[in-house]
Amino acid sequence: MRYLADILTLSRFILAIVLFFWAILGGSTEGAFIIFFAAVLTDTFDGTCARKWPFPKGKEPKYRKYAALYDMVSDVLLAASQVLFLTLHVNAIFGISVIIFYVVICSIIELIVYGKFFGHPDNCTPNSLTKKNFPLAKKLVLVRRYIYTICIGIINAVVLFATSWPNPVKYILFAAGCSVYIYMWLFLRQRRENISRDAVDIEKELTRKAKKEKK
Hints:
Mean pLDDT: 81
Order of helices and strands: HHHHHHH
Largest sheet: none
Number of domains: 1
């Protein structure tokens, strides 16, 4: 069971690639929704599985050193593939609008929190919000996650209602999707608590580095 989280993450990566080519080749809207929804389910439960069945400390497989990177790449590729399908086959204006909105918001948050794009708490600039007010920076990072979740939910709903399925089926699937996203929302709240606990250690590390730079 310890490998279940890794299997789910790998499955999401594979589904993201399948969805990408599905969009390029002009697959059905129904198929796109099923692929994406299955991938979202893996995203919903891989973190839960990782916490419930962790590897013993010091005995994790070497590839898990980059587990966070694998997870992030899978999420980005999946979201990009669904937006691509939406833009090419459902509503181009809406798809492009979502892309612009998300990129602009995330870019602003990155610049404020880290002082540069693709930043991280341990390599941010001296004028970044992370250096000046870490608790506030932490909240902005969570805002970005919330925006991502909301955008993905809206995109999938638009794709769902663009299918040829009967309305009762659409409503049932929509309700199921809402249940998944409510779970993810609660999971993000739990992640917020985890970040709060880790914040003390990160702040200590930032303080240590700052003192070292002054010497």
